[in-house]
Amino acid sequence: MKKTIVKSKPDLNQASKRTAGIIETIRFDINAVDSLIGQGKLANVQTYGCQGNVADGDAIIGLLEKLGYKITDDENQADLILLNTCAVREGAENKIWGIVGRLKRVKKARNGVLIGLCGCMAQEETTITTIQEKYPQIDLVFGTHNIHELPHMLKQAMSGQKLIQVYSDSSTIVEELPRVREYKHKAFVNIMYGCDEFCSYCIVPYTRGKKRSRAKADIFKEIDDLILSGYSEITLLGQNVNAYGTDFEDSSYSFGDLLDDLAKTNLKRLRFTTNHPHYLDEKTIKAMANHSMIMPHLHLPVQAGSNRVLELMNRKYTKEEYLEKINLLKVLVPGISITTDIIVGFSGESQKDFEETLDLVKEAAFEGAFTFIYSKREGTPAALFKDDTSIEEKKLRLKTLNTVVNEGYLKGHKRFVGEIVEVLVDGVSKNNELILSGYSQHNKLVNFPGDKSLIGKLVSVKITKANTWFMSGELI
Length: 476
Ligand code: 5AD
Ligand code: SF4
What we know:
Elements: E1 4-8, H1 12-16, E2 24-27, E3 42-47, H2 51-66, E4 70-71, E5 80-85, H3 90-109, E6 114-119, H4 125-134, E7 140-142, H5 150-158, E8 162-165, E9 172-175, E10 186-190, E11 192-193, H6 204-207, E12 212-213, H7 216-228, E13 233-237, H8 255-262, E14 269-273, H9 282-290, E15 297-299, H10 307-312, H11 319-332, E16 337-344, H12 351-364, E17 369-373, H13 391-414, E18 420-428, E19 435-440, E20 445-449, E21 458-466, E22 471-475
Parallel strand pairs: 1-8, 2-9, 3-4, 3-5, 5-6, 6-7, 7-8, 10-13, 13-14, 15-16, 16-17, 20-22
Antiparallel strand pairs: 11-12, 18-19, 18-21, 19-20, 21-22
Helix pairs in contact: 8-9, 12-13
The structure holds 5'-deoxyadenosine and iron/sulfur cluster.
5'-deoxyadenosine binds at residues 88-89, 201-202, 301, 303, 341, 343, 372, 374-375, 377.
């Protein structure tokens, strides 16, 4: 068996002890990349999880193409398979282990296939131990902080060495990585990396490291280039975009200022995700009210509706404070659509606490929500909390919650029947080539008959029918 070189292993405990310190920006030198190592080879990149992972996947694909690889969707044809993983819930991890098992056969079937694992799971010690004990088919493991080292790491893996190279924390931001994006009309742009919130249930502050905001000039350079290339919609990305700039030495420039400045560009549509209720400020809400290029939709994860549970979760706001912000949003941005994330069955959540979540969902009138059963993450504070609710009870709570949430989706669609909405066309519908689909300003999925030539364009659609998951309409 090949020898494994363990250059550095992750350490969740060490990751939690990081200090503020100076953030250094590295400028990636694309000319230093050996563009021959992937020549004539195929690479398959499988990305799971959040938009942050998708953005990393875009950079990984950008790098692989620079190395000479061609990208394929077919893992059975690929010379290199990379699993870009998510660690936010146990289910996401189990799925990856299933795929790793399947890849053993792929590797046996063809000589010289390399398999790599990266992303948030790579940042956990338990993942490294499991790979070393059970999955010799994995040749390369790297983390969320060293994607830019991929060219070097691949070279080493190709020379027959197994390599594990994961850093627990990072004080760097890497600029100028090449990126291959899925769409030509809408793009995600990171404005910050990492998270310093340490919500008690969440693994992200450990796997993605400390909060690091990108310099305004670097964000603008990327966005200006995208606008010049014809992009209509940009979504600003970060684990807590509302805390943008709070890590700068001079923290007087805030997220609201960034929005005001971006509103001066020619960009047609601006969105941002994800938001933290404690940090969402009036300046941001006013920017949404003042600039029509900022879309009237906000994803504002509430997580729970009981103040006791919110405190256990370390969320830094009460139900009342959350509702106050929602009310201000609704007053200043009339017609705004608000969506959220909710966790049920958190350790110690009682039936009464859960009912408070249901009440809040009704009061906030969410028009959509991602709902989850709490999943214990080793290394987080909540993993030590006593949990005496059965899984059957938790599943029942999720089902009850989803019924209310789905009513919100439908209501949110019904209010547009008979109205004309602007849609940015993403592509053809999965089930029917003659149906186009895209998102309205309020972030509602719209399906309508139309020609493929409209893909990437902004069109007007009259809404004729509201369904739970989408609205139907006709082009006008
Ligand atoms: N269990 C269940 N859901 C979680 N989330 C984050 N951590 C956990 C966990 N341990 C959810 C939160 C967050 C979303 C991205 O994932 O609702 O907003
Ligand atoms: Fe996780 Fe909380 Fe940070 Fe969101 S804000 S990534 S839930 S720790």
